[in-house]
Amino acid sequence: MLKIQNLQKTFNKNTVNENKLFKGLCLSVEKGDFITIIGSNGAGKSTLLDIISGSVPCDGGSIFLGEQKISNMSEYKISRFIGRVFQDTKIGTSPSMTVLENISMALNKNKRYGFSWGIEKKKIPDIKILLSELSLELENKLNIKVGLLSGGQRQALSLLMASLSNPYLLLLDEHMAALDPKTSNIIENLTDKIIKRGNITTLMVTHNLKQAVAMGNRLVMMHRGRIILDIKGEEKKSITPEKLLSLFTEKESGDIISDRLMFA
Ligand SMILES: Nc1ncnc2c1ncn2[C@@H]1O[C@H](COP(=O)(O)OP(=O)(O)OP(=O)(O)O)[C@@H](O)[C@H]1O
């Protein structure tokens, strides 16, 4: 479903700050895979999602989403196939528009008339049901401007909106990192529910080892632009945060693991 072959990326080429990040990274993702991605600071996790979504160009290699080569496409075109939720709770929604207008925009995303927030009245009951499943009272706030919602409510809405256009791929970039523990827990459960319900192929970057272990069917660990661990099936089910840490140290002995990863 997603095939990344021989990915190359160098930042600040031919300068003193040159950083050869990806030197032939490969990753094959099956339809319905829910992959949690962990790794040290600067490992390339966000850059990988940026390149897949077209916001950062790669220098070489190819990325296929199904039969479609997306590695040379514009970010705008790729966004038709991909949903993305960021760490910043303000990015996925439009603050000056109401909850209903935001939802309508997501529902109309890939339609011929494009981004529009016109909503058919008959759809409102279904939208209320979708929102009530978030258990954040948003079904009673249809006409409230999204800028007035809490970070958790906005993130739940972003997640729902990212899933509404039935994306081929969902990219979650530390989308729970800016939330307090209770809200993070709510969004974690929602993430699981939304992904399972739609069987959405998903890559989720996290610094939280417990979430990386508990969620998804596959776990990828990155370090310095390389994939150093890729586990799935029974191995993934039986992994613990402690085992992950010792595996990391085994594979990269001598390197200092990031405090952020270690104490998440
Ligand atoms: N626009 C850019 N210009 C120059 N260097 C960049 C740019 N974006 C990322 N980098 C570098 O690429 C490397 C990977 O960064 P990236 O943000 O992808 O890592 P990460 O694994 O997501 O890290 P973290 O866990 O700290 O968020 C880092 O060394 C970073 O400084």
UniProtKB/TrEMBL annotation:
Topology of the protein relative to the lipid bilayer: Peripheral membrane protein
Stored Pfam families: ABC_tran (PF00005)
Entry-linked InterPro entries: AAA+_ATPase, ABC_transporter-like_ATP-bd, ABC_transporter-like_CS, ABC_transporter_ATP-bind, P-loop_NTPase
A single Gene Ontology CC term: plasma membrane
MF term (GO), any: ATP hydrolysis activity
Residue ranges occupied by any ABC transporter domain in the UniProt entry: 2-249
Subcellular localization(s) per the UniProt record: Cell membrane
Statement: the UniProt record of this protein carries the keyword Membrane: yes
Alphabetic keyword roster: ATP-binding, Cell membrane, Membrane, Nucleotide-binding, Transport
Principal cellular location given in the protein's record: membrane
PANTHER family in UniProt: NITRATE ABC TRANSPORTER ATP-BINDING PROTEIN, TAURINE IMPORT ATP-BINDING PROTEIN-RELATED
Protein name per Swiss-Prot or TrEMBL: ATP-binding cassette domain-containing protein
